[in-house]
Design a protein that fits this description.
This is RNA helicase. The termini are far apart. The protein is 50% helix and 11% strand. The chain contains 9 helices and 7 strands, in the order ααααααββββαβββαα.
Amino acid sequence: MGLFVQLAEAAKAQFSRDHSDYFALVRAYEGWKVAEQALSRYEYCWKNFLSAQSMKSIDSLRREFLSLLKDTSVVKSNMVIFNAWNYDENLIRVVICYGLYPGISSIVHNEKSFSLKTVEDGQVLLHSIKVNSVFLRDTNVVSDSVLLLSGGSISKGDIDGHLKMLGGYLEFFMEPSLAEMYLNLRKDLDELFKYKIDYLHRTGRIARMGAKGKFRHFFMESDFSYEETVATGKNYNTVNQKSTIS
């Protein structure tokens, strides 16, 4: 049994190299897809201690999610354009943080070790098999910058350079000018994402009406400046943000 566990851990280690269980799972799946083309997917799963059924389930879910993204016009049929950044692991960590927040575990450093805690459960363990304990099964390490720019709302603390999240559960201390920069960047990102969501909502509503032709004719004139800003990377704050649709 001990040898079996060691072999399984060694197989997992080849996929895990950047403190992310999610990246490890993606690499395992990508290897399975390559093996599928070579008609050796079952051998691949056996060699790497993977479940063939789990790989099939992941493949099915990915196809379903892609279909939903296409139905809502988030992506189009030309996947090359929308996959341009799919190997940027820093960007993917941002997406993971957006999707899993507020499922955050903070690291508490002690004199000789460290511990983990969450808002809901307090102290937790990492990949533990102990009875009567809460443990984190799948984790992904993110930096403070990723958390500040893609987590929940940020509030100012009691002193300059002090930022808080989750009602003070997460605290960040830095130079006041740096804190102000994070607040401004976060405001710009939130406005950009809000615009993109509104853009998709309007597109979807027009599509459901069965309208033919270019849906852009349903936008206000100021909406075009939004689109131009996103496309050219101009300063988002220069765009008029008061347009409405009657």
